[in-house]
Amino acid sequence: MKKFTKKFIQFTVGYLILLYLKKDRFYTYKETKILVKKGVFHPAFFFSTKFLISAIKTFNLTNKKVLELGAGSGIISFYCDKKGAIVTSSDISPIAINGLIENNRKLKANVTIIESDLFDKIPNQVFDFIIINPPYYPKKPNNDAEKAWYCGENFEYFEKLFKQMNPYNNGNTIVFLSLSEDCDFNKIASIASKNNFLLKKYLNKMILWERNFIYKVMPK
User: Fold this and answer.
1) Side-chain half-sphere of 175: how many Cα atoms within 13 Å?
2) Per-residue model confidence as pLDDT tens digits over 1-58
3) Top-level CATH class of 2-219?
4) Most C-beta atoms within 10 A of its C-beta, which of 72, 89, 147, 207?
5) Residue 62 · residue 18 · CB < 8 Å
6) Distance between CA 112 and CA 45 in Å, rounded?
7) Coil, strand, or helix at residue 193?
8) Do residues 152 and 191 make contact, with C-beta atoms less than 8 angstroms apart?
9) Where are the alpha helices (DSSP H) in 123-210?
10) Count of Cβ atoms closer than 10 Å to residue 64 Cβ
């Protein structure tokens, strides 16, 4: 019964959120106001965004090189920029990229914005922080919007992610990966291990009906 109730709540709330996100919306976090383009993950409703910020806010980010991979609204990138970081923000979605460019200009931020499928178009360099809020439901995405939710029938997103990560990570890089109890953690961890990475639990928190986790991606 509890499982049924959780699924019903998720479906109902998810449906209402999708209706809300059919229009461009504004969102303010810590006095930073951004435009969230329709169809882009909205940080007010997707708990992992603020949870990731809670993980990085304990660090001194001044002059640290930060990559937000799959940035969506970019609120994490703009937070890091305000803290003095040297930020690169990427996304596969042209709609998300347009929003990032517009917000970067309005906020007078200095974020480097790159349209990229994971690391494909990220210039080779070592980052101090890589922040990833990934899709993790195993289904083939049919468009860019669905790529924010679905990682492919065979977890192709994670296969590519861990295969590409090495040139950007010198072993001292702090890589934060956000997951929830609804994902197939064992499958994701096995893909990481195959590519010589370990997932070490860093934070966990029950947010409404769902337990959320932040893992550090570490070399084996």
Assistant:
1) 24
2) 444 444 433 444 444 445 555 678 877 878 788 888 887 776 766 678 889 999 999 9
3) alpha beta
4) 89
5) no
6) 26
7) helix
8) no
9) 156-164, 185-194
10) 18
Strands 174-180 and 129-132: parallel
> What does the block give as tokens for 211?
């337990």
Please give the C-alpha separations between residue 193 and each of 60, 92, 119, 130, 185, in angstroms, as whole numbers. Answer: 30, 25, 19, 18, 12
Residue type, 34: I
**Alpha carbon 57 to its chain's center:** 16
How many whole angstroms separate alpha carbon 96 and alpha carbon 12? 25
* Gap between the Cα atoms of 143 and 197, Å rounded: 29
**Please, how many CA atoms are within 13 Å of residue 32, restricted to the half-sphere of its CB?**
21
The structural domains of the chain, with segments of one domain joined by +, span: 2-219
Could you tell me what percentage of the chain is helix, strand and coil, using 3-state DSSP and rounding each to the nearest 5? 35, 25, 40
115 Cβ neighbours under 8 A, 6+ residues apart: 90, 91, 92, 94, 97, 121
Q: How far apart are CA 158 and CA 177, in angstroms?
A: 11
